[in-house]
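Sanity check record (used in CI):
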Amino acid sequence: MTATAGVEQPALQEDSPTVAPSGRWFGFGIANLAIVVALSVGTWYLLADPTTSPWHFYPLPFNAALFWAILFIVFIGFNCEFAGFNRLPQPLRGTAILAATTAFAVAVTWLLGAGLGSIYPDFSSSRADGLGYFAGALFVLFGFATWVMVVLNWQHWPWTVLRMKQPLIGLCEIAFVAVPTLALYFVFGLPSVSLSATHSLMTVDTVLGWFYSMVVAVILTGQTLDNWPWKLFGGGGRTALAATIGNVILGTAIYFVMVPLAKALLGPAATAELGSTIHQFPAQIGVCWAFWMIFWANGFGNRFSPVARVLITFALAVATFIFYYRFAAGHILHEPEVATGVSGTALGFIDWLVLWTLIYVVGYGSLGLKRLNPA
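Expected output for AAT family amino acid transporter:
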């Protein structure tokens, strides 16, 4: 984990530690994991659980607000490196991040559903099954790939070459990268869920599965593999170009590997019932892997060699996928069955784990675990 201006940041740099200064790193990581899971499950029961929550937010607009919340953390934490927030002492810093994230997520979800939705029915909050909320939040899928890539893979190029400082670096990234992100959304995303589109380039299930596989490629290469192999291209624009092209190719390869893996993990009966929906399951496995890559970097200090990190996080991802779909979603989180013996959607609760990881471990700096922190 790296530190800038006195605040711990998401693990973004190539020089993340691989050798633990003491055996306490494991206890520190387990303690972080226990707190993140407790926070996630507790708040799930309050806000989203179909049987215990006093509201009816599940699955939408809850998932829509969740996606916007994670994107906001990407903006302020990854792109802007918590500029402004890092001047505050704990726990005020974490509370400010939590409050700002909540306000942004709720405001954007409401403005799209009730505001833009009153003009364009595609985004209307009154669409059946909350699809209006989903149509707006689908934009975030592309943002996870583009805005994270300019940090993890591009290393803030070209803004650092122009001798800019934060928060100007982050604001420029957010503004300029919005253009290709919107283009991807309007070409691939919106037509797949639009009421007026007569045809789209691909179904919404394929969009979810394929583009989330690219998100996995970005996190895998940029964080878990310390920006390898893109850093071999010499840095700057060469690395940025290599990463952009390479992550599309690698993400596509991950997608085609994940589809048969999902079928194998779910079994033939569930696969047959899901039909074409199986094409979104690379995203369902991918979010489990993304969670563990993010948590391993920030909770466990990105220990061990890059290859070992890949093996460890992928094994944990597969185990999490099986445990979630076969048991946790139905029996702990009370989510409805989607096929025989399979319940829930990992893009909901597992992303909720990601959000609480970023808020507690990064935003609050693992508040209360100072004695366990090997750093």
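The chain has eleven helices and four strands. If this sentence no longer matches the regenerated tokens, the check is flagged for review.
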